[in-house]
Amino acid sequence: MSIYAGRIREALAVSIDTTRLAEAWIALHAPQPAAVKAIPPALAAFLADARDAIIRALRAILPRAWTEGWVLGQIAANAVVQGLEQVDWQDWTPGDYEAAAQIAGPGLRQLLAQDGIIIRSIAETRLEELSAVLEETLASDIITRDLNGPVPVTLSVQSLASQLEAVLDNPNNAELVAQAEIGRAQAHAARELYAVNGVTEVEISTAHDAKVCPICLAAAAVGPHPVGTPPMVLLHPRCRCAELAVLRSAVT
């Protein structure tokens, strides 16, 4: 997971020219003779391009993360079904996307077909955070207005650019995205393998430590329930639970 958190962070950090965005925003709110100032077409276009740039950055990374997450879930679930004491990782190690792609089965294609929806959702969240930083400059005293004189802009381009960069180059956000998307792929793969092997029920297994939250404890308390019905992981952001197959012993 940490491998892809780093890659997501690096990709987003260079996806947008934050200096250009800061320059355009400050220029928009600099002294102008007009009483009402419309957003310049160049700035509007830049914001639209920013969304597209974030989407491109994520599209270069997330399909690889989904592929490796899928293989992780597929192999781990197979070990559970087969009752293996040790997991055979088939010469695959985390971070080796090419090896994972060779192992992944056809079910992965269905997950990858949803990539546009997920990536756009993540991109919109980052864009909302960038917009919040820009709007905050108007809600604070950073940009002040004097009714008897020009509008003094006290926020520097470098300072605003740094704030915008902090949104994109955010290790916590990158880790959250990586964990959520790898976990989502892992859970989908496990459910598919369970279905292929005739497993009809699963139960939630927590991390069994002091950090387990009430949501996860409540889900585990449900016990065996049909595959693909709630409760299902991920139960919440940063959820560490897994869905384990409930294996029924043959009646003799």
Number of helices: 9
Q: List the uncertain runs.
A: 141-152
How many separate domains? 2
Class by helix and strand content? mainly alpha
Topology pattern, helix = H, strand = E: HHHHHHHHEHEE
Q: Can you give the mean pLDDT?
A: 85
Q: In order across it, which strands form the biggest sheet?
A: 2-1-3
The number of strands is 3
Strand percentage lies at under 5%
What general outline do the C-alpha atoms trace?
elongated
Helix content: 55-70%
Distance between the termini: 44 Å
Quick one: biggest sheet? Answer: 3 strands, antiparallel
Using the CA coordinates, give the radius of gyration.
24 Å
Account of the 3D structure:
- By secondary structure, this protein is mainly alpha-helical.
- It folds into 2 domains: 2-197, no CATH class; 199-252, no CATH class.
- The chain is built from 9 helices and 3 strands.
- It has helices at 2-13, 18-28, 41-82, 97-103, 107-112, 115-139, 157-168, 171-196, 214-222; strands at residues 201-205, 225-226, 242-245.
- The chain has a 3-stranded antiparallel β-sheet.
- Helix 2 packs across helix 3 and helix 6 runs antiparallel to helix 7.
- The two termini are 44 Å apart.
